[in-house]
Specification:
Blueprint: E1 17-21, H1 25-39, H2 54-63, H3 70-90, E2 94-98, H4 106-115, E3 121-126, H5 129-142, E4 147-152, E5 168-172, H6 182-194, E6 201-207, H7 212-218, H8 225-241, E7 250-257, E8 262-269, E9 273-277, E10 282-286, E11 291-298, H9 302-311, E12 314-321, E13 327-334
Parallel strand pairs: 1-4, 2-3, 2-5, 3-4, 5-6
Antiparallel strand pairs: 6-13, 7-8, 8-11, 9-10, 12-13
């Protein structure tokens, strides 16, 4: 008996939804390279992007709802207040989001674009293909006129695959820029600007310097979600590289380094043991108390945004911040100003 569904029940292709896959074997190869390099170094480390498979993306969405994690709430409120102004300034035909996740905050911008009556294409890029597809399909249901082109890719490797457009706005929200060192951030924004055209715009979210107690609570939530998110990188390695990490053998450590204005996250071994990554033919020894450095989250001031854009050949066109100075949104223009300027 055939299990083929009747014609009436078959799902028709959505002409306004397209999908591009850039990962596959190269993703595993990059993970293998990063894992070998990081776990055999004198100071062990793993890139924070490996938090984000489908499970990791869901964990991060849950973190954003914790009472301690001010960042998403403040970021969201800034976008709510200034979305119409942002749309009027840029008038984008294409909105590209790097590390899109569930695109919760992006909906505020899409709402403003719909109010303005613009015909727009949304291009989310994310390393979690399953999460990305769910987001793309959800947005198509919520915004019937919205064209969506999802890219399952790694923005560290696939910036050059950003599609052409008449007026492009690139979103790099949530202070993801803080995961990069100063030199890495300058190189990244410079490379991004070279993929765009004069007059295109970039909106970067920046978590700002603030009291240490506020930062400590945000990265050490009482529910333990950040700890589980941190350990998720080990689960990703187990799955992709046939590893036998015991995530529960590592405790989450996060603290603020005031000298470098950044939060650091580590995984600290609670006992001496050895881990095998069979896909690499690699065995890694851990002493009790030894750490894997998994993330930095730099904290910024407005002057940092100005310097970052200037080094990349762009100009800071708008700076929006909340009353407490907890978070900033920095709108840069490739090749200089294209709209107005203010000094707020």
């Amino acid at each position: 008996m055939s299990s083929r569904p009747p014609a009436a029940a078959r799902r028709e292709p959505d002409p306004l939804l397209t999908f591009e896959r850039l990962l596959g074997p190269s993703y595993r190869g990059t993970l293998a390279r990063d894992a070998r390099r990081g776990l055999t170094a004198a100071r062990k480390s793993l890139p924070s992007k490996y938090f984000y498979d489908g499970r990791g993306s869901r964990l991060f969405d849950a973190i954003c709802d914790t009472p301690e994690y001010y960042l998403t709430r403040v970021d969201t409120e800034l976008l709510r207040r200034h979305a119409d102004e942002l749309v009027a300034l840029v008038r984008p035909t294409d909105v590209i989001e790097l590390g899109a996740g569930g695109a919760q905050k992006t909906r505020l911008l899409l709402d403003a674009l719909m109010r303005a009556g613009g015909d727009v294409r949304y291009v989310p890029m994310d390393v979690s293909e399953s999460h990305l597809l769910q987001t793309a399909e959800a947005l198509r249901g919520e915004y019937p006129a919205l064209r969506v082109h999802g890219i399952a890719g790694d923005y560290e490797r696939h910036l050059e695959r950003i599609p052409p457009g008449e007026r492009r706005l690139v979103l790099f929200l949530g202070s993801t820029i803080g995961n990069l060192t100063p030199a890495e951030a300058t190189a990244f924004v410079s490379r991004l600007a070279r993929c765009l055209a004069p007059g295109d715009a970039i909106l970067i979210g920046m978590d700002l310097v603030k009291p240490e107690a506020v930062l400590h609570a945000a990265y050490n939530d009482a529910a333990g979600l950040t700890a589980e998110f941190n350990r998720n990188a080990l689960r990703v390695i187990n799955r992709e590289l046939d590893g036998d990490f015991d995530p529960e053998a590592f405790e989450h450590v996060a603290f603020f380094d005031a000298d470098r204005a950044r939060v650091e996250m580590h995984l600290r071994a609670t006992r001496a043991h050895r881990v095998r990554l069979r896909a690499l033919g690699l065995e890694v020894a851990f002493d009790r108390g030894e750490t894997i450095h998994t993330e930095i989250s730099r904290k910024f001031r407005r002057a940092d945004a100005e310097q970052l854009y200037a080094a990349a050949g762009c100009t800071l066109e708008r700076w929006w911040s909340d009353e407490r100075g907890y978070f900033g949104e920095a709108l840069g223009r490739v090749g200089g100003f294209s709209g107005g300027s203010d000094r707020r």
